[in-house]
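Suppose you are handed a protein chain with no further information: no name, no annotation, nothing but its sequence. What can you learn? This example shows the usual starting point.
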Amino acid sequence: MSQYFAFQWHITEACDQRCKHCYIFAENACKKLDSMSWEGMQQVVDNVEEFCRTFRRLPYFYITGGDPILHPDFWKLMELLKERHIPFTILGNPFHLTDENLKRLKDCGCDKYQLSIDGMRKTHDWFRKPGSFVETLEKIGMIRKAGITAVVMTTVSSVNYRELPEIIDTVVRYRADVFAFARYVPTSDKKSTGISPAEYRKLLAICDAKYKKYEQGPSCVTYFNRKDHLWTLYQYETGEFRIPANAKKGMIYGGCNCGNCHITILPTGDVYACRRVAESKVGNVFTDRLKDLWLKPMEAYREYTRFSKCRKCKLLAWCRGCPAVAKGTYGDFYAEDPQCWADVDGAMKAEE
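A reasonable first move is to predict its three-dimensional structure. Written in structure tokens, the prediction is:
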């Protein structure tokens, strides 16, 4: 995927659910729902293609909402992407998926369809809506039957993290192609992820053991995407990740995509460095050229020496945890990740 540049595109806020951890409704459940016009969507595609020509990359869309299929011009957009030969992933709900719709999505170039499971049945349906858990699991097979990669994502918080091992067993049993989890991002000063660094490291160890057991088995089709960048810290400690001998000082090789290879576009046209960072607006796709936004205002999210803890860590170029979780917890994008357990000050003293 290195030749591609990722654009997370929220085309509508319309949705059949009101999830308790949704960024759209977290602070204002009565907000007016925004949707991008058909003319606006065409402008976005043109602007994105100009950006990619400038930087010699190929566009890749992660199309979401809300539930993107609820947009009245959803299928017109799908046909436009097919015409422009732009691949895409859909991040949506299971409720409007049919064999016919999935076949049509595949024909338009849909690469992956991502669903969410945020706990076992009782917890998931509390987060989302009654019946959602069963319907989500049922649609995994339909997505795979259409030739589309079925992805399952879990948002982890203090409410559900103890259920994660059972969630893993469930998605493997239903033969999801990909499984990953990421942490809940606090949306106000009164909220937090609710997991201590020690608890989170223990969780990664439990999941790692379960992943490896399945990976060594003959019948598991699920790929376990170690999405959270703190996996890098964990694997460094276990010896599975080593800093390359030819790594150049000052280069960024991985870690958080914010400011590196990712742009978010909302239904209003507002452009964000990260959807999970509420104050990261850098411009608007209808009034600004994306290539200009990338070169100037987005630079504020690439000041790596400002990370209060990560700048002291030898894994700065590969990890940096999740700045969105740091921002939601402490109000500072460059603050330390609240679940990071690394003792960078102690490690530095030991090396001196």
